[in-house]
Amino acid sequence: MHSQVSTLLLDAHASSLALLRGQHAQFACALDQGASLVTALRHCGIMFWRDGRLDDAAQMLTAAAEAVPDDPTIVAELGYILRAQGKKAEAMQCMLRSLALDSCQLQVWLSAAGLSNEAGDKSAAEDAYLQALALDGRCAEAAVGLGLLYVEARQYKKGARLLGLAVDLGSASAPIWACLAQTRYLLGDFSGASAAFAQALRLGPGDCALVQRYGRVRLIETVIERPVEEAIAVYLKTTGEHAEDVLDVCRAAFQALGGYGPCEAAIRLGRALLERMPDDPVIGFHLATLTGCAFDRAPAPYLIASFNKYAQHFDRHLVEVLDYQVPEKIHLLLAETAGTFKHLLDLGCGTGLAAPYFTSFGGTLTGVDISPGMLDKARERGLYDYLIEEEVVAFLSGCEATYDLIAALDVLVYFGDLAPLFAAVASRLEPGGIFAFSYETSDCEDYTLQPSGRFAHAAHYVESLYGKNFVSVTSKATMLRLETNRPVDGQLVLLRRV
User: Is position 156 within any domain?
Assistant: First the structure.
């Protein structure tokens, strides 16, 4: 077949072939030695590719692919060269064309996956990696690529399984072990994370950040079974000169154990911390929640201390790590309800994440928050007309202004008993005005305090508070955020003041 094609090309493209002969002595030599046209083109293309002459290689393999357009290998080889030239869209076209001719090419699927990933098409990349694994279930490159895709998408169980497969297959680089370790940590598998961190350090010793993360998980792993002082000793021995402030490390371990469990270890560690910092309101409140103490709201000292410390990295952590999208979601509901508002009140405004959405409705925007650190960050946005440092119910009860929109996003979670808040909102909301809020849902009797220090409420309890003051406009179930990397179910609600 190639000889027939060569004859046709020689007749039709004699001048082009003469040009190629003149440009490339290797090509002319191959033809003169009796190689077929396609063989000579492909041989020279691969040789030029090997020597880094990408333009010449592309010229040769383009001609070869034109000569035999139904040869999947040559089409794929052209795609590899185009990718090396940075012509990713053209390379992807070649890969897809080659796969259409022969779908059983493992390396081509891997290249298609990589190109799709680079282009930001995660769905196509996932499909290509799955096709590669279907051809070879022990392909480490596909397991790594797909595992990293899943980790990026916060599908940690799938990611951990595939990265575990990859290291079992011998893809044992330090970064892959470290990624597997962190993924296991995010799943609450502290022993598995510890073992993976140890492997990462065996392959890449001396990495300060890696040593510190390993030390943190070793402390958690140890305190689950052993006394706190012994766990601290293990941490210090593990980290050596890279040790961080022990109290900060223990505080982070306490929060992790409180979220993932086991709670008994969290309680022991919390009590040890409280002995060293008896006036710390954050540790005190979280320890109280773990030991079953009753609260009808989160204490003000806890909120102030917690959010002042949280303010500097609040936006990044909430949006990028916890996947918090409530402001965008509530904005869509409000846009369907009313075009403008004259006076807007953002209760618990925090750093002002919702401000860009509220300002789209016009009017004056007032923000209220109990944390001065959060208000400093909100002030930097320059979007609020007024910012007030006060507890939200106290503010509503003491102010004289009225509003046609009052929003409380991620605020009800710090109240168990919601009756005072609803009454205070009703007193400051104009007739016909909108009360927009979110809350975490639960099958509890009325409300329950969770290990996270946040309250979840039963829908029937929230609805019982509408009374004569409010009528429902809309209510929508949604995921509010992630907690220990698990979705938190919640409700977005718009009420109208009667």
Answer: yes
Give the count of domains, the chain: 3
Q: Which CATH number belongs to the domain containing residue 232 in this structure?
A: 1.25.40
The predicted pLDDT at position 7 comes to 47
The arithmetic mean of pLDDT across residues 155-179, rounded, is 94
pLDDT: which is higher, 32 or 291? 291
368 and 279 together in one domain: no
Angle at alpha carbon of residue 64, lines to 136 and 41, rounded to 5°: 105
- Do 10 and 151 share a domain, yes or no? yes
Regarding predicted confidence, which is higher, 486 or 270? Answer: 270
Show the CA angle centred on residue 96, arms to residues 95 and 102, nearest 5°: 90
Q: Is residue 178 part of a domain?
A: no
Residue 412 has a pLDDT of 98
Q: Name the pairing type of β-strands 403-408 and 429-440.
A: parallel
Q: What is the mean pLDDT of the chain?
A: 92
Asked if residue 248 lies in contact with residue 280, where contact means CB atoms within 8 angstroms, the answer is: no
Q: Do 141 and 215 belong to one domain?
A: no
- Tokens matching residue 309: 């410390």
Q: What is the pTM of this model?
A: 0.85
CA-based nearest residue to 219, from 197, 201, 241, 187: 197
Tokens of 155: 């599908």
Domain with 484 in it: 312-497
Residue 388 has phi, psi (to 5 degrees) of -130, 130
Distance of alpha carbon 491 from alpha carbon 438, whole angstroms: 6
